[in-house]
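Dear colleagues,

As part of the handover before I leave the project, I'm documenting each prediction I ran so the next person doesn't have to rerun anything. This entry is a single chain, and its sequence is reproduced below.
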Amino acid sequence: MTVKKTCKIFLILLLSYLLLVVLFESSLGYFQPENTSTLQISTLDDEGKLSPRIVVRIESAGKLYVAANHWPRAWYSEALVNPSVQVVSEIEQGRYLAVPVDRAEHDSVNADNSLGLMFRVLTGFPPRYFLRLDRED
């Protein structure tokens, strides 16, 4: 096989993989399930409007967390800018303070709630960031 043909095959495989990731992320955003393992977090967007997003509810060491596990993560950036967020779920609801975690806390929460390899492959191996949700009330 020539170098040119090998490069062409590699490029086709890479583009196919990128398309798979985009389709998976898009469908997950559209068909996001809501159940006891999820919660709705509402952040303020650039225009000052509440922007709701369904995310996975994570518990570790008796504390509540959410994670940015995907490439689309506007809600995470919005929570960093304005950390006072609204949370609604079957288990809790109210105002919370979204607190970025340090490396040690990140590693601990990640170890307690690791992601499977297949999920990481389908999402394109995005970096994972956690926010601890501390009740404001």
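The domain at 34-135 is CATH 2.30.110.10 (Pnp Oxidase; Chain A). The helical segments are 3-30, 74-81, 103-112, 117-123.

All the best with the project,
I.
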